Amino acid sequence: MSPIEIGAISVVAIVLLIYIGVYIPIALAAVSFVSIWLMRDNFDLSVNLLKVAIGDSAMEYAFATIPLFTFMGLIVSKARLGSDIYEVMSTGFRRVKGGIGMATVGANAVFAAVTGSSIASASVFAKVSVPQMLKNGYNPRFAVGVVAGSSVLGMIIPPSAMLIIYSFVAEQSVGDMFLAGVVPGIMLAIAYIGAIWGMGKLFPKFVGGRPASDYERMPWKEIASKTLPTLSLITIVLGGIYTGWMTPVEAGAAGSLAGLVIAVLRRSMTLKGFWEVLIETGHITATILFLITAASIYSRMLGLAGLPNQLGEYMTNSDFALFQIMVFYVLLMLFLGTLLDTASIILIVVPLFLPLIEPMGLSLVWFGIVTVVGAEIGLLTPPLGISCFVIKASLNDDRITLKDVFLGALPFAAVMLVVLIILIAYPQLSLVLLN
Length: 435
Description:
Blueprint: H1 3-19, H2 24-40, H3 43-58, H4 65-78, H5 81-93, H6 99-115, H7 118-135, H8 140-151, H9 153-156, H10 161-170, H11 174-202, H12 204-207, H13 220-242, H14 248-265, H15 271-305, H16 307-317, H17 322-337, H18 342-357, H19 364-376, H20 386-395, H21 402-425, H22 428-431
């Protein structure tokens, strides 16, 4: 077989292995290793490329952002900042149709700016927001759908783990990716709030709800005490990066220290809890490092096979316009989103399309935002919508089935698709803060 054929078969093999349950990095690394061996008939070359991939990944300075931002996100969750922001938001929206849902979106957007994790958001707000909405007569499907939909904001609003992973795969600046994620993240949050308002007007039965019976205006002093810690963290981390005072790594370190101080002052952090956070940070960091290392050897395998160049030549010879290429790309991500998680989609698809996008003079930063938003939709689609599974597990409520969560999240997946189309049509929306 030719290298092109081996490369094509390897991509299909990786997808199939992941789908049947093989651990993603194992599938990527094992198939890539064997493919290089077959293409060059040289076992030593495969071993050496694997060594290089491991070394390049582990020694990359920017990789330090991952444990630091992971630690900060876990500390923030321990400090209960998510529930505080939700309480403040809900006081401003409770008397609006779908208001608690809007408050959940707003709180999730703010929470995402200090955690960067959709899983953390889904877990926190499933326990905080859903019971409140059910108490006030909201449709259970709408309640869980709002939490599922807004939880994905953690994937696009910086600091985002997916933006960091993309920056490694595409060799882009983590700081630039963070800057580019701000406007699309805000757009998505506003679109969700607008969609909730529209559903309240057009489909009131799907939304449900009634004015909160226990509504009391929150005193300004209490609002300040609940929001200042979160706003301080956002200012330190994102403000430090955007003003150029700190690199993303330094911002992660400063945010981690600030989060730890807040948790200690709030007496929400014990020595046992601190140790658990350290252990979980280590587990998550090791997992992501393994992913990045496997993606590195996979990229080298694709390069040896010449598959990305072959794909680029085919697209060029077929006279495909950018619009057609992006339609194909989005459809591919939506399809893979029904089978794979976001990280897998980024690691498998991006190395294939980068050599096609770069010669066109298109921004790889913009392409990263499009990729992450497109892959995010997979968090809400069956059978592998991770956010939906997390919400179901966090609720532990037999009245709400996994089917309810997926159906509730469907309108928000549609909103994401609309926002994605806008971002593709107007690249400047993603790049405005970089100019």
